Amino acid sequence: MERALPEQIIMNMARTSPLVRHAWSRRGRAPVGYIMGMAVAFAMVYRKLHRGDPVAHIMAMADTGNPARDALTWCRTLFVQNSMSNAASGPDTLRHLFVLMCGLGMRESSGWSGAGLDTDANKDGMHPPSASNAEAGLFQVSYDSIGAHPLLRKLVQDYRGKTDLQAVFSQGNRRGSSSDVGAGSGAAFQHLMKTCPAFAVQYVGVALRWNRRHWGPVNRKTVEVSPLLDQLLRRVQHHVDSFG
C-alpha cells in the first residue's frame, strides 16, 4: 500500500525557499500558499508519473516539436535561456512544465486560486462573458477549452465536488472565491477551477501540451521561467524518491 505524501515536509521546503522572496515580473512576491501548493502538486503528479498515470504521462512527454499546439515547443527559447531541456520524456520535462505553469499562474491570477472573470479584459463590451468563455482559477481557464483532449473531460469528472489542495494554496491569501458567470456545466467548471487547485494544475498541464493558444501570456512569451522554482522542485523530486 502506497504511503501518504508527506505534504508538511514539502511545504516547509517551499516556505524556506528563496522563491518566496522572489519578485515576479509585474506581479511582485507570490503568496506563500501558491509556492507551497505548486510544490505539493508537483510531488503529487510526479508520483502519478511513476504509476503510469495518463495525465502525468502527457504532462511529462518530450517537446513534441509542434509550436501550434505545445507550449513547451512554443516557449522553447525561454527554457534554453535557463538551461532547461525538454528533449526527453520524464521527470525533467514534467518539472519544467510546472515551472512554466507557476509563471503562468502569477501572470494570470497573481497566485489566487479563487480568481474569476477579468473584467478589464472586456472593457469594450465586444466579447460579453458567458458560462463557456468566462475564465477562472489560478491559470484563468474557460470551459470552452475542454475539447482539446479527452482527458480534460475525465479530469472534470474525477474531481467534481472535490477541493484537493485548496487549504494549501489558500495560505497567505485571505481572498475567497469570486462569483461564477452563467449557469450549467460552464459555471460548474468555473467553480471547480477555483475550489480544487489539484484539478486546475493537472487540467492546465494537459491543456498546455495540446492547446497553448488558450493563454495570451504563453502566446506572447511573457511567462517568467524561474530557475529558482526548478531548484525547489528538484529538491521535492529527490525527497519523493527517497520517501518511496
Can you walk through the features of this model?
By secondary structure, the chain is mainly alpha-helical. It has one domain (7-116, 130-243). Helices cover 51% and strands 0% of the residues. The chain is built from 12 helices and no strands. The protein has helices spanning 7-15, 32-50, 54-60, 71-74, 76-81, 91-109, 150-159, 166-169, 184-195, 197-210, 216-219, 227-243. Helix 2 packs across helix 3 (54-60), helix 2 packs antiparallel against helix 6 and helix 7 (150-159) packs antiparallel against helix 10 (197-210). The protein is globular, with a radius of gyration of 17 Å. The model has no long low-confidence stretch (mean pLDDT 93).
Label this structure with key terms.
mainly alpha; globular
Number of domains: 1
Helix tally equals 12
Shape: globular
Helix content: 40-55%
Portion in beta strands: under 5%
Query: Secondary-structure element order, as H and E?
Result: HHHHHHHHHHHH
Poorly predicted ranges: none
Give the structural class: mainly alpha
What is the mean predicted local confidence, pLDDT?
A: 93
Report the count of strand segments. 0
- Radius of gyration from the alpha-carbon trace, in angstroms: 17 Å
Task: Kindly report how far apart the N and C termini lie.
Answer: 11 Å
Largest sheet: none
Write the layout of secondary structure elements.
Blueprint: H1 7-15, H2 32-50, H3 54-60, H4 71-74, H5 76-81, H6 91-109, H7 150-159, H8 166-169, H9 184-195, H10 197-210, H11 216-219, H12 227-243
What is the gist of this entry?
With 244 residues, the chain is an all-alpha fold. It has one domain. The chain is built from twelve helices and no strands.
